[in-house]
Queue: 2 jobs
Job 1
Amino acid sequence: MIAETNVTVRIATIDDLAALCAVQTDIFDHTINTQRATEFLADPRHHLALAFVNDVIVGMASAVHYVHPDQEPLLFINEAGVASAFQQQGLGRELIQTLCAHGKSLGCTEAWVATEPSNIAAKRTYASVGGVEADEPFVMFNFNLNDEHNRGAID
């Protein structure tokens, strides 16, 4: 369904660092930090599916796979982003499918992702890949590890 015929989606490698650092669109929440991008791409448990038109990144989805002493490896999908000009064309679905296939190739038996109840586009995308919305919502807690008020609980 992707209208742009020259879109390529694949798992990123360190060779994609220059293209990643050159991203100038609304795909990511913040400007790319070269040091963090290098660290991410070098870490074998961090994964980034990238969508390219020629050499320009037009979409991404990130994930981390992790192991736990009492479970099979799991894939946590952190987020997905698609440039405005490429939305509503199935690119988000292809990015998530690519991440899930990659996770399966690594031995992950399950993948999961969370989004806000109001994020209809994300919910639609995740459902289109076969994701099933949880019966019970969960509550998320954030910890600001640099906040002096939290120091006593964290130190």
Job 2
Amino acid sequence: MGTNNSQIKTQDETGTIGSSILPTSERQVRPLVSLEPEQQRLAWQQAVEQAGGKIPSGRQVQDIVDIIRERTKVPNPYHVGEVCILLPKDNPELKGKSGCWGVITHVGDYSCTIETWDTEYTVKIEHLKSLELLDEDCQFMQQLCLRLRRLHQIENRDSAVDWLCSGLGKQPKPYLSPLQSKLLDIVEQEYGLALT
């Protein structure tokens, strides 16, 4: 056994004894989640080889997973109109967006475009988590996102508008409390955006 319990001796099908490196952090394992168990083992072995027989970095594992996914065409599980939470993980573009929800507007092979209250992102599917809402709840969230985006686009808006939008943009529930609903209505009326 190696240092930090990161290395174990194994016997493969041919009977030879080899060395198998095990992950030491969640960052190394996280990219593997989107693959089937057999593909996970293969991806890890390739990442170890790429790292010269040492423990690979999370980035090295992600690169191998991306190559395997391109070859095997893992289907994108999301659909247009679905409401998801952003998972920033190792994506610097999503810094500060942990817990923000948005609506998927485009689905690619390995990525989705998602609209939040203040902007639009194109992210890999591992940076999304579905809220698994019913259709009518998705429709409510889609309307809420539209309302928040309209408020955010107002020039010279009071900073309180951004506080309200930011707060509601991190509340992944398909409803508003009576007070939240009243506040949103008042702000929309203030800027002439009241729904008719």
